[in-house]
Amino acid sequence: MISPVAHVGEMASYELAALQDLEAISLAQNESAFPMSPAAVTAGRSALEQSTLYPDPDWSSLRQSIANNHKLDPSGILCGAGSMELIGCIIRAYAGPGDTVVGTEYGYAFVATAANQACAIHIKAKEGNLTVSVDEILSTIDKTTKIVFVCNPGNPTGTLIPNEDILRLRSTMPDNVLLVIDQAYAEFADHHQHPQEVFQLAARGDTVVLRTFSKAYGLAGTRVGWGYFPSNILLEARKLLNPNNVSITSQAMATAAMDDQEHMASVVTKTTTIRDKFTHAIRNLGVHVPTSHTNFALLQFDSPQTAQRIDEALKRNKLILRSMGGYGLSNCLRATICKQPTMDRVVAVIKGELQ
Ligand SMILES: *Cc1c(COP(=O)(O)O)cnc(C)c1O
Which of 137, 206, 205 is nearest to 165 (CA)? Predict the structure, then answer.
């Protein structure tokens, strides 16, 4: 009998959306409904032929392009095979057996998995009104806490807390606890906030900011994420990254996508316009939808039974939303914003079920 190490044997596998029905439209994984920048397609095609060689292990062009477009120091940037890879490396570098990683009640589920992979304990700070509460996080931190994870805007809630709350959290929590701010959806909210206020926290030496190409840039399949790190933390997290982690084509595509800010901004505008119209239509049916600052909306029904009945009706209509039982929100379904005709179908099915 071959046995795994105890903490792995006890772990549950990370659950992705159930997408077995190939004819159905997925509104389950928050991928972009709009195509990537045409420049990214061109760059990816020409990079294919260079793929005999290993990729640039330092992501030089990609880092430079991220730095230029965000006014950051390229040496503070680390790139991952998705920001999930960076989340895993950060947790393994700073939390081990007996340590706790504090996330939030409805925070990103992968953080708990990554903590368990490191044999650390994941604890959730309560949220209020489906929104991150800095005071609840502060009262959850104790001597065992090594890392605090805040997803802003939040997934699966879509809600946003102001930068001043993040700054207050950082200045109030202990200096020896690492703060990680996951901004996977920030491109949908950057026009509301001053992104530099958060990136500048890295200069303190105790805070990391993560972003991704998977959402607003429409490159989920290329698996590229990035983070802005203090030099001390970058050095440790990098030891745990797989060398040559981002393929030649992925680096080329992400670089071209980053340099086409105009395309990204137009995707954000189209997506948020459809989202706001969809939110309005769903609220008109008497369903609660927290104001979203992302490319998805959380639909909160009156009971888990209603949510399940609507989920089944949508599935019969080949529309797959993400059920939220795993987050303790079994009365909710999360809908990725797709093109207008798809969202119209979702509204029609829900309307039919609620009448
Ligand atoms: C989608 C998402 C990510 C990004 O994951 P990638 O590995 O970069 O695709 C990270 N955090 C949250 C909260 C997300 O929703």
Answer: 137
217/325 same-domain check: no
**Of 213, 232, 260, which residue sits at a domain end?**
260
How far, in Å, from the CA of 1 to the mean position of ligand 1? 36
The rounded distance, in Å, linking the Cα atoms of 221 and 260 is 18
Q: Looking at the structure, tell me whether residues 244 and 268 fall in a common domain.
A: no
pTM for the predicted model, two decimal places? 0.96
Asked if 152 and 181 touch (Cβ cutoff 8 Å), the reply is: yes
Residue whose CA is closest, atom 11 of ligand 1?
A: 184
User: What pLDDT is attached to residue 13?
Assistant: 85
The distance from CA 123 to its chain's CA centroid, rounded to whole angstroms, is 19
What domain range is 158 assigned to?
Answer: 38-260
CA–centroid distance, 204 to ligand 1, in Å, is 25
What is the three-class DSSP state of 288? strand
CA of 214 to the centre of ligand 1 (A): 7
Same domain, 240 and 269: no
The answer to whether residue 1 sits within a structural domain is no
Among left, alpha and beta (phi > 0; psi -120 to 50; other), residue 257 is alpha
User: What is the number of the ligand 1 atom nearest to the C-alpha of 108?
Assistant: 13
Q: Which stretches in the chain have pLDDT values below 70?
A: none
Q: Is 39 exposed, middle or buried (0-12, 13-18, 19+ CB in 10 A)?
A: middle
Residue 56 confidence (pLDDT): 97
Q: What is the pLDDT of residues 108-159, one digit of tens each?
A: 999 999 999 999 999 999 999 999 999 999 999 999 999 999 999 999 999 9
Buried b (16+ CB within 10 A) or exposed e, 186-221: bbbbbeebebeebbebbeeebbbbbbbbbbbbbbbe
- Determine the pLDDT at residue 181: 98
List pLDDT tens digits, range 7-30: 888 888 887 777 777 789 999 999
- Domain check: are 244 and 206 in the same one? yes
Ligand 1: residues whose CB is within 6 Å?
30, 82-84, 108, 151, 155, 182, 184, 212, 214-215, 220, 225
pLDDT for 19: 72
- CA–centroid distance, 2 to ligand 1, in Å, is 33
**CA 351 – ligand 1 centroid, Å:** 31
